[in-house]
Amino acid sequence: MLKAERMWALGAMSGTSLDGVDAAMVETDGEVIFGFGDSTYRPYSAQEQGVLGRALGKWPGENVSEALRIVQTAHEDVLSGFDGAALVGFHGQTLAHEPRGRGTYQIGDGAALAEALGIPVVWDFRSADMELGGEGAPLAPFFHFACARWIGAEAPVAFLNLGGVGNLTWVDPSRRAPESDGALLAFDTGPANAPINDLMMARCGQPYDKGGAVARKGTVAQGALELFLAEPYFMRMPPKSLDRDAFKDMIGLVGELSDADAAATLTGMSAAAVLQAMEHCPSPPERLLVTGGGRHNPVLMEMLRVSLDFPVEPVESVGLDGDMLEAQAFAHLAVRVARGLPTSCPGTTGVRAAVSGGTISRPQQSKRIAG
Ligand SMILES: Nc1ncnc2c1ncn2[C@@H]1O[C@H](COP(=O)(O)OP(=O)(O)OP(=O)(O)O)[C@@H](O)[C@H]1O
Ligand SMILES: CC(=O)N[C@H]1[C@@H]2OC[C@@H](O2)[C@@H](O)[C@@H]1O[C@H](C)C(=O)O
User: Fold this and answer.
1) Phi-psi domain of 330 (left: phi exceeds 0; alpha: psi -120 through 50; beta: other)
2) Where are the alpha helices (DSSP H) in the chain?
């Protein structure tokens, strides 16, 4: 275990919406955030997205070599452009996630990345948690705890990530540490952008509903919304997590609707899932801070605002970067792993006891292309 030492760490995340790789630098000792540094984004081309999309749902033993090569090359390219990182946190690309079944599967080879970059790489963040009975996700909550302190919050706040899937973290920043009893409650809320994107691609040949423009013209079909909310997942007590495609069938619920009504209804479903999730929080948060691409969808944001009686704001309102929060999370978590500090606990993943996940791969050769 390293002693508490602040360092610049570089984190990288390739999210479930398959849009690209985010990378960001954070100065941290794994507990306190001292500052945020450079960040960048490397989109996947349409051809790369196609390969990754076809690899979704595959498990170890199945052939994903082309997808792996894309993920590996994209990360090497983007991460080699940074200077001064002592450590890299490499999430990889989730292909499948079945917490109560076959486990979780992220592709990306941290040992090869450490060789290519010439710096230690922390990876395989989710396995240890699952081995101890956890969901393996979400993992950003330990970083959200540090963010709540960084923004100076004294009362509970909540972070909502609207990515392909939605996830919510309720934080009580007055607790001593993120693993302390009652400091964190976190779980996946339900589908967020993934079904909207799938609908837009199938019906309009567009990757997403930019600005909620299509949904804005439609009306939410109440019958379909009620069928969606009858899904047992919403009643289940957290922690709980989801595969990107766990709600793939919900597209069928809007199959008969016009494009606008279908988009409005799927957007309404994503919002309703968040409202259900808020019911599970120990107390209403002071504010709901929204991160991830869905914060750019004004229809989705408005649906949340009209139903919640505390402010719903993008994380930019407190000086954070909503496009980079997940990449920053894996930078921060990498330092926690290097120090042997926990990265998940019963309140975030349902793991039996707080656990420090992740594997550290150090470069064997002294080759250095960064720093
Ligand atoms: N201007 C916009 N209008 C509407 N939706 C948007 C806009 N910008 C981004 N999005 C949505 O956000 C998605 C990308 O979100 P994000 O990058 O947070 O996902 P991710 O990190 O891949 O997912 P996850 O957090 O589940 O791993 C896009 O696919 C799109 O659906
Ligand atoms: C298995 C997996 O990759 N899950 C992702 C996904 O995307 C959002 C949500 O579902 C969350 O559970 C998680 O990512 C974030 C970064 C997390 O672990 O906190």
Assistant:
1) alpha
2) 46-55, 65-79, 110-117, 127-131, 141-150, 194-204, 213-216, 222-229, 250-253, 259-278, 298-307, 325-339, 346-349
Element (H, E) at 313: strand 312-314
| Residue entry with tokens 């984004």 | 41
Helices (H), 157-258: 194-204, 213-216, 222-229, 250-253
Q: Is the CB of 48 under 6 A from ligand 2?
A: no
The domain that contains 186 carries what CATH number? 3.30.420.40
Residues 90 and 185 in one domain: no
Same domain, 164 and 285: yes
So what's the ipTM on this one?
0.96
Q: What is the pTM of this model?
A: 0.95
Total domains, the chain:
2
Instruction: Give me the amino acid identity at 64.
Output: V
- Per the annotation, does 347 bind a ligand? no
Task: Clarify whether residues 115 and 169 are in a common domain.
Answer: no
Q: Indicate which ligand has the atom closest to the C-alpha of 104.
A: 2
Per-residue pLDDT of 308-346, as tens digits, reads 999 999 999 999 999 999 999 999 999 999 999 999 999
- Look at ligand 1, atom 21, and give the residue with the nearest C-alpha: 15
Q: Which tens digit of pLDDT belongs to each residue from 191-221? A: 999 999 999 999 999 989 999 999 999 999 9
Range of 78's domain?
A: 7-133+356-361
Q: How far is the CA of 229 from the centre of ligand 1 (A)?
A: 22
Find the 35 Cα to ligand 2 centroid distance in Å: 24
